[in-house]
Automatic annotation (TrEMBL), chain A:
Residues passing through the membrane, by range: 6-24, 66-85
Cellular component, GO, one term: Golgi membrane
PANTHER family the UniProt entry points to: IMMEDIATE EARLY RESPONSE 3-INTERACTING PROTEIN 1 (PTHR15858)
Protein's recorded name: Yos1-like protein
Highest taxon of source: Eukaryota
Family: Belongs to the YOS1 family.
Any one Gene Ontology BP term: protein transport
Signal peptide segment: none
Presence of keyword Membrane: yes
Subcellular location: Membrane
TrEMBL record, chain B:
GO biological process terms, semicolon-separated: endoplasmic reticulum to Golgi vesicle-mediated transport; protein transport
Name by which UniProt lists this protein: Protein YIF1
GO CC term, one of those recorded: endoplasmic reticulum-Golgi intermediate compartment
Role: Has a role in transport between endoplasmic reticulum and Golgi.
């Protein structure tokens, strides 16, 4: 068949990736490479360009960080306790 | 004492259709389960039916089997209790309907299962041989107020995606895969759940990837999620054919080898072309004048190219990966051992 797909491993990979997205530093890293979410410049007066791929990925990263901060605390605690108890 | 309505032994043909004349009203309440709460007809029936004393459960002759309450239902408090029970069941039914409609759009699901035999046959042929099919767009029909058009159901439009074929193909794939495992002696009952979970996970991953792609490329998706699930389920048809043909020709040595790869590549190409043509109208919004949303924004050339690339990537590369994952089978240990020993 599929030689027993490892769903636990898949879950661990997913949690690792989300953690990696969450710990990126906003001002030290993302602003340096220009991926920070700039608010609309009021002096600009125009439409903020949100339709390019890069703008949408930045938006996605920012929203993942905002949303998953608190659930990640709980999930990480659970995984840590699981790893401590069950090795 | 009373007329016996049946001269035949129990598993026989239909007894006469007229209601038997009650000759003897039973005073002992026969404890049968009450009929399902039929609102109108229940009012007239309970007091006036005795039940002919047959030996056992031959109630087929009495037409509609009204419960033999006999003297039990004459009691007004019992009648009131029965009424309350009926109201409670109706209220519960309504509660379930309301809440279920909030989580699961039942009417939308019904649209997807509105198929006919000819539709299923032609759609299966289309999944296998999509190269000569000419119009791929789904047909619309405007509702009477002329504003919102809705798509024709699969019964009337060959290009409309349905959920019948994907669901059936999914279940058939699970059973077939487990059957093949059993034929080579590697069956254990968890294999069913394992295959189901794997196939389910493949579909979910695919839909997630597709949704991510549509978000990143800002493709405004007008069609529903179930359409995408349906399109994703059509590859199970090709997978089933690959498994059947490869395993019969290979005599159980897995789906590798020349024949297996040939049939797999053909099924993959047919499925990919089918998806390419069908999803063109979903992922690449056309500039037709009668779009109901009226959003006629100009799409940049580069963005259009990117969307085409994404569609191609999804139809070919992603489907290849997933179809390959789902058609992997091990070689049978006994057949391989025999071939080695010979």
């Amino acid at each position: 068949m599929l030689f027993i797909p490892n769903f636990g491993g898949l879950f661990q990979v997913a949690i690792l990736l989300v953690n990696a997205i969450a710990v990126l530093s906003e001002d030290r890293f993302l602003a340096r490479i220009g991926w920070s979410n700039v608010p609309t410049d009021p002096g600009f007066g125009g439409i903020q360009e949100t339709t390019s791929v890069k703008a949408r990925t930045i938006n996605l990263i920012t929203s993942v960080r905002t949303l998953m901060r608190i659930p990640l605390i709980f999930i990480n605690t659970v995984v840590i306790i699981y790893e401590l108890v069950l090795g | 004492m009373h007329r016996s309505a049946y001269n035949n032994p129990p598993p026989a043909h239909s007894p006469p259709l007229h209601h038997p004349v009650p000759q003897h009203v039973s005073t002992v309440p026969q404890l049968r389960s009450p009929p399902p709460p039929v609102p109108q007809s229940q009012q007239q029936s309970p007091n006036s039916y005795g039940y002919p004393q047959q030996g056992g459960g031959q109630q087929a002759g009495s037409g509609y089997a009204h419960a033999p309450f006999g003297g039990f239902m004459n009691d007004p408090t019992a009648q009131m209790g029965f009424q309350m029970g009926k109201t409670a069941v109706a209220a519960g039914q309504e509660y379930i309907d309301q809440n279920l409609n909030r989580y699961l759009n039942v009417s939308a699901l019904k649209h997807y299962f509105n198929v006919s035999n000819s539709y299923v046959a032609s759609k299966l042929f289309l999944v296998f041989f999509p190269w000569r099919h000419r119009p791929w767009s789904r047909q619309q029909r405007l509702s009477p107020n002329g504003q919102d058009g809705y798509f024709l159901p699969p019964r009337e439009d060959i290009n409309s995606p349905d959920m019948y074929i994907p669901v059936m193909a999914f279940v058939t794939y699970i059973l077939l895969s487990t059957l093949l495992a059993g034929l080579r002696g590697a069956f254990h009952p968890e294999l069913l759940g394992l295959t189901a979970t794997t196939a389910f996970a493949v579909v979910i991953f695919e839909i997630l990837g597709l949704k991510l792609g549509t978000y990143l490329l800002s493709i405004s998706n007008e069609s529903q999620l179930l359409d995408l699930v349906a399109y994703s389920g059509y590859k199970f048809v090709g997978i089933i054919v690959t498994l059947v043909v490869a395993e019969t020709i290979n005599a159980g040595q897995g789906t590798g080898g020349l024949v297996g790869w040939c049939i797999f590549l053909y099924a993959f190409n047919a499925n990919a072309f089918f998806l390419l043509r069908s999803l063109k109208y979903v992922l690449l919004p056309d500039t037709s004048p009668n779009t109901a949303s009226g959003a006629s924004y100009t799409i940049a050339r580069s963005q259009r190219n990117r969307r085409t690339q994404f569609l191609f990537f999804y139809s070919y590369i992603v489907q290849f990966a997933f179809m390959w994952i789902l058609t992997r089978q091990e070689a049978s240990p006994t057949v391989a051992g025999k071939a080695k020993a010979a």
